[in-house]
Design brief:
The structure is a single chain. By secondary structure, the chain is of the alpha+beta class. Helices cover 21% and strands 29% of the residues. It has a 6-stranded antiparallel beta sheet, with no helix packed on it. The radius of gyration is 14 Å and the shape is globular. The chain starts with a helix and ends with a helix. The model has no long low-confidence stretch (mean pLDDT 95).
């Protein structure tokens, strides 16, 4: 599967190292060595975004990291306790969901979703301080 053009342009423009693979009906975007904010247990991790059929009209749901992330102080990050296997690897699932109407079909895409992920990472990392 190819990504919608705005998503492909976003990845290319940002120079993000990534691979795209299918996992059943899901299109997986694997962003390698994602830089994480201070306050987490590692400086980088691989970020997996799984796009359901119907994307970009339907929003992504949750995201995954490998290796698993904790707070730098060893604390557990809320709603990240589940691990799942995708693409032959074990991933930590970040259970985060949109409220109805929060995803704007035709407007939102990978760029806005990655921004949301980064905001959540910063919020979680700050809780370790």
């Amino acid at each position: 599967m190819t990504l919608p053009e705005p998503d492909a342009e976003f990845l290319a423009h940002r120079g993000l190292s990534h691979t795209i693979a299918m996992d059943g009906p899901m299109t997986c975007v694997l962003l390698q060595d994602w830089i994480l904010p201070q306050g987490l247990n590692v400086a980088t991790a691989d970020l997996l975004i799984r796009l359901q059929p119907g994307y970009p009209d339907l929003p992504p749901d949750m995201w995954w990291f490998a290796p698993a992330l904790t707070l730098a102080n060893g604390g557990v990050i809320q709603a990240t306790e589940v691990t799942e296997s995708h693409l032959g690897r074990t991933w930590q699932r970040w259970s985060r969901h949109f409220n109805p109407g929060q995803w704007r079909s035709g407007i939102d895409g990978l760029e806005s979703y990655v921004a949301l992920i980064n905001r959540e990472l910063v919020r979680c990392a700050a809780s370790a301080a």
